[in-house]
Amino acid sequence: MSEYRVKELMVPLSEYATVPVGSTLFEAVLALEEAQEEFDHTKYKHRAILILDKNNRVIGKLGQLDVLRALEPKDENAEKIGELGQFGFSPSFIHKLRKQRRLKAAPMKDVCSKASKLKVEDFMQTPSEGEFIEAEAYLDMAIMQLVTGPHISLLVTHNEEIIGILRMTDAFAAVFHTMKECEI
């Protein structure tokens, strides 16, 4: 595996879904859809959108789960329900309360319409330590970072500039390819 370098497996920034800071969730979802349509269909589809500042530098990542979280009602009752576990209430009971709350909420179409106008920076994840890997690094180092950290992708850097993204699916595909070669 060590013959693969990250730069050979990454998706270049130019091929990834990006939007500028200040974009709405709807604009981000459209960018993701467009990137998926233009991306090589023999590869795995993108599952995140990179957020760029005014200098086109990556300042955050908005994943599919982040977009879905934006649909959840935001009020103090939501936080209070989540805190019930510390008082001995079971996860099952808390789940039932959340379900009842969801049933009383606005219809999904209305929730989506309202959420589509929200700003990406309110839901994006800021890159954290351990989420970066140098383009010249070998795949085994990337795998170590992926399996020991909480990330499903790594931001690839060259001279401290983010130039692409290495997704777990790309690392897995390289491992799978290597395994197949060993068996032949």
Quick tags:
184 residues, alpha/beta, CBS-domain, 4-stranded mixed β-sheet, 3-stranded mixed β-sheet, 8 helices, globular
Explain the overall architecture:
This protein is of the alpha/beta class. The protein has one domain: Roll (CBS-domain). The chain has 8 helices and 7 strands; from the N terminus they run H-E-E-H-E-E-H-H-H-H-E-H-E-E-H. A 4-stranded mixed beta sheet has the order 1-7-6-5. It has a 3-stranded mixed beta sheet with strand order 2-3-4. Helix 7 (139-148) links the parallel strand 5 and strand 6 (153-158). The protein starts with 5 loop residues before the first helix and ends with a helix. The model has no long low-confidence stretch (mean pLDDT 87).
What value does the average pLDDT take? 87
CATH classification class: Alpha Beta
- Rg, rounded, reads 19 Å
CATH architecture heading: Roll
- CA-CA gap between termini: 16 Å
Give the fraction of residues assigned to helices.
Answer: 40-55%
